[in-house]
Design brief:
The complex is a heterodimer of chains A (about 280) and B (about 250). Chain A contains five helices and 14 strands. With about 280 residues, chain A is α+β, with helices and mostly antiparallel strands. By secondary structure, chain B is an alpha+beta fold. Classes of the chains: A alpha+beta (about 280), B alpha+beta (about 250). Strand 14 of chain A pairs antiparallel with strand 9 of chain B.
Chain lengths: ~280, ~250
């Protein structure tokens, strides 16, 4: 379908909107999926040999690359024995008519901040183990996300890409004499708290239906979205992050539906995702 | 000054190490709140809202013609929100101007307020909402939204419902309402702190904003929403009182 974009917003013809909503009213989607069904997830590692790690993740036709680099840095004064961490996201014009070259827009800022918070607050990276000399020298971890093709749900795809990139990231080789990094160790991974791994699932309200892993067309007619990240607590899912987007409001009934779906999807998907992240 | 009311919602959280709040509040208590409209005479609408040491001001300008023209929507006016912390609002000076945090908070605030305003009577216009924080002690985005909702009402912008906002959280295992800075970002022991800003609409009690970071079970999360509903009822009273006290003169 030809994309119509006005002021950075994807415009959906009314006819197509009604079709999507009436299909969902019968529990169907244009691409044949059920409302709560995710697209097939594919993962490729080793996208760039020059980085600590770089991966490609696809949910159907939505495709994102994510890479990790480590650099030498000075620690923040309030945590002199901790490494530092930064996430950036580039929603590049190659990925969609909707995106422009230049300064990051609100979409990429929100995406990067939600992913950054999820990783940072969960303590997934063992920051203390990234200290070289207290108060003077630590490793800084960069996660850089690059959208290649946007067919909806960039939040979940980019989030998983970031996790897998970190899960596969290798430690730098520190050259103390010259105070620089000489490439990356072939085998040794960066220090991670593997038990706190959590991944995100984003649900949208379209018409009267709650829909998971939306396509770009579905995303354009969404009333609200709710991203829920869940991790493992002795075999049961535990909420680790949430972010609501768009101007619609969530009723108690919708919230009940979403929480139930999130718990059951988490149980289906978590074992495979853990395998993808840690290899 | 409205006295914080204490309504009891049974806390489902288990007993943890956080058993007492430093300022003597019960876990379900909101900090003392104040609200006032008409604080900026030249604006179309304005308000201040404070909870404890956290202070927010909001100014509404519009509806006014949106420029550049190609951004106009011929079907409806649009809401545009900016949020910022003043350089002197926290202990370490904040560099003036926009940053990634402020831009995100501006956007989620815009979504929350857009859910209740109706600008269909003002095609091709924009309503600008400016939220600023002069003094921060956690919960600045929710205080800002409480002020902004008041300023919109004060400006006479058509609204389907009012919105009220509150931060609810979990400190170790204890569910807590209206976190201060210590509870929000300085408590790291045991299970640490989970902060959950919530915005609820006044009539349907639907969620207009929700963010969360931390660790919380699905059951505890449901209890958090119930606590949020009780707190938002109290906040709504403070907001409505402020609007009543505005009197006939729009700019108070």
């Amino acid at each position: 379908m030809r994309e119509i974009v006005k002021m950075g917003k994807f415009i959906m013809p009314n006819l197509q909107k009604e079709k999507i909503e009436s299909y969902l009213g019968e529990g169907k989607r244009l691409d044949g999926r059920k409302a709560e069904e995710f697209r097939e997830i594919s993962v490729e590692t080793g996208v760039s040999k020059n980085s600590s790690s770089a991966v490609r993740v696809k949910y159907g036709k939505t495709e994102v690359l994510a890479g990790v680099h480590l650099a030498l840095a000075t620690p923040y004064p309030d945590s002199p024995d901790s490494g530092t961490f930064m996430t950036s996201a580039e929603l590049h014009p190659m990925a969609s008519q909707q995106f422009d070259i230049g300064r990051p827009g609100i979409n990429s800022i929100e995406l990067a901040r939600v992913i950054d918070r999820g990783i940072r607050e969960s303590g997934f990276i063992d920051m203390k183990a990234l200290c070289i000399k207290k108060g003077e020298k630590v490793y800084q971890v960069f996660v850089d996300i690059f959208a290649i093709n946007d067919d909806g749900n960039l939040m979940d795809v980019a989030g998983l890409a970031a996790l897998i990139a970190l899960g596969r990231a290798r430690m730098p080789i520190y050259n103390e004499e010259e105070d620089k990094i000489d490439g990356y160790d072939e085998k040794k991974g960066i220090p991670l708290n593997k038990e706190v791994l959590s991944f995100s699932m984003t649900f949208h309200k379209i018409g009267d239906a709650i829909v998971a892993d939306v396509s770009k067309e579905e995303e354009a007619v969404s009333k609200f979205r709710l991203t829920i990240a869940m991790g493992d607590n002795e075999g049961k899912p535990r909420i680790t992050a949430m972010q609501k987007g768009l101007a619609g409001t969530i009723s108690d009934k919708d919230m009940e539906t979403i929480l139930k779906l999130a718990e059951s999807k988490w149980s289906d998907m978590f074992p495979k995702i853990r395998e993808d992240v840690f290899g | 000054m409205a006295a914080p009311t204490t309504q009891s919602v049974p806390l489902k959280g288990k007993k943890g190490i956080y058993t007492k709040r430093e300022d003597g509040r019960k876990f379900t208590d909101v900090r003392p709140m104040t609200a006032k409209v008409g604080i900026v005479p030249s604006a179309d609408g304005s308000a201040s809202f404070s909870t404890g040491k956290t202070k927010a001001i909001a100014v509404v300008r519009g509806p006014r013609t949106l420029h550049p023209q190609h951004m106009q929507n011929a079907r409806t006016g649009i809401l545009r929100v900016s949020y910022g912390m003043m350089p002197f609002s926290v202990e370490d000076r904040i560099r003036p101007g926009p940053n990634r945090r402020a831009e995100e908070i501006g956007k989620v605030t815009e979504w929350a307020l857009s859910s209740v305003v109706d600008l269909s009577g003002f095609p091709n216009t924009v309503v600008d909402v400016f939220v600023q924080i002069p003094q921060a002690d956690a919960g600045t985005r929710v205080a800002g939204i409480n002020a902004a909702a008041l300023a919109l009402a004060h400006a006479g912008i058509p609204m389907k419902e009012m919105v009220s906002a509150i931060g609810v959280g979990k400190i170790d295992k204890t569910l807590v309402v209206d976190l201060d800075k210590f509870e929000d970002s300085e408590f790291h022991d045991a299970e640490g702190s989970t902060d959950i800003p919530i915005v609820l609409t006044s009539r349907k009690k639907e969620i207009a904003l929700l963010q969360l970071d931390g660790k919380i079970s699905v059951e505890e999360f449901k209890a958090v929403i119930e606590l949020g509903k009780v707190a938002c009822d109290d906040i709504l009273k403070v907001q409505m009182d402020a609007l009543k006290n505005a009197g006939d003169c729009k700019n108070g």
